[in-house]
Amino acid sequence: MRVVRTVAELRDVLRGARGGVGFVPTMGALHEGHLSLIRAARAHHELVVVSIFVNPTQFNDAADLAAYPRSEERDVELAASAGAGVVFAPDAQEMYPEGFATTVSVSGSITRTLEGASRGSTHFDGVATIVAKLLLAVGAEAAYFGAKDAQQVVVVRRMVTDLGIPTRIEVCPTSREESGLARSSRNTRLSPENRSRALAIPRALQSLETAVRAGESRPVALRSLAESILAAEGIAAEYIELVDPETLEPVTDLAAPTLCAVAATVGGVRLIDNTLLVPVK
Ligand code: AMP
Asked: Is the pTM of this model over 0.90?
């Protein structure tokens, strides 16, 4: 396992690599969700590069950035155990050198809605800019992303297509704890009590899946079902949206597979989750 800090070092290491390269971008504090992406990449590529960079420009809240968990030594061990060969862990100066003045901004409704509406337009500017830089630095055949960040996948795909970045984007399913809670680096900040309250989020999503299987197709009814399940644990969602999985436009009727995306803050910890609701024929 090699740990490199600069793009120049990374390019040196990759020049000598034989076979294809797979890439998994992360913000560290690795958990089983990240490891599932690394394993998926390793199944298809000789060499897997994992980046660890807590990207300041995608945080709209300075306290959230400051509280973001960091555990590089452990991350390097975990990444290696899942099959990574290189960890790229640059500092902020490396990614945003003095005088940095370029932003990759994906416009339109895919960045305005959901996380864009909640966290502000600068969130996805930060995401698109850092992902573009990382994809260009690594030059992988494919990069692996989690379905947990469904909107991020839509935005990254748009950006990669528009800029002609020659890296395929692969999506892996959301990894969940046995309780159903979607794995997240932020989960370590939940108290035991809040962790148990947070289970209302996957429970709400499951109830919507059940309701849709039973024939419910009205977004208003589905949203209020989810709201009531969250409210029983004293959780007021930032959003519960039913949208087209590709355009992220709100749907008026579940005639086709529909993404239900939720964001909620539980005990001061902001959590997101989603599921694809597939209507019965
Ligand atoms: P992050 O470190 O949170 O920026 O996430 C890095 C990558 O891991 C992103 O592509 C996420 O979508 C993915 N990821 C995070 N949590 C999970 C999870 N529970 N299951 C699958 N992928 C995940």
From this structure: yes
